[in-house]
Please model this.
Amino acid sequence: MKHCEALLIGGSAGSLEVILKLLPGLNPALRFPIILVLHRKPGKDDILTNLLAAKTEMKVKEVEEKEVMLPATLYIAPPNYHLLIENDHTFSLDASEKVNFSRPSIDVTFESAAEVFKENLVCLLLSGANSDGTAGLKIVKEFGGMALVQDPATAVVSFMPEAALANVDVDVVLKSNEMSEYINNLP
Model:
């Protein structure tokens, strides 16, 4: 990888706990955006955005249609939409069928980002109870991107990281307490 142009983090059951631990340790002046795709219940509320914003000095916001990605910003995929990354580094929202019983689907966003950022993409898959993210990580690797997975031993629900490890040539396995430093040191 030459340099990271975007970091995507996908997670489901048990992943919020990890995110709340890693955010305070992140450099608020990162040169790339962080895009968070979490399985969440439909509905419009600012609780998650406010909770995450309280843990970091980075700008935190829910994605809006056609919004341009900016560095040092944490974007949250809105509930009930698949989040796609466009070639001009904007977001688009899609209400098509659920994938892996989820919308937003981690696979959909990882695959979309892989086609845009290729070898300059880093994706981190966290705790969760289904295999969403595994197919997406495979595509990320095919395009030369980097696949990171939470150490299943540190995951509240280990199914998601275990599925990725069983099916993808993962670059790095990270314990929860190693994630911030690793992200801060991405080229």
Remarks:
- The chain has six helices and nine strands.
- The chain has a mean pLDDT of 95.
- The first helix runs from residue 15 to 22.
- Helices lie at 15-22, 47-53, 106-117, 134-142, 159-167, 179-184.
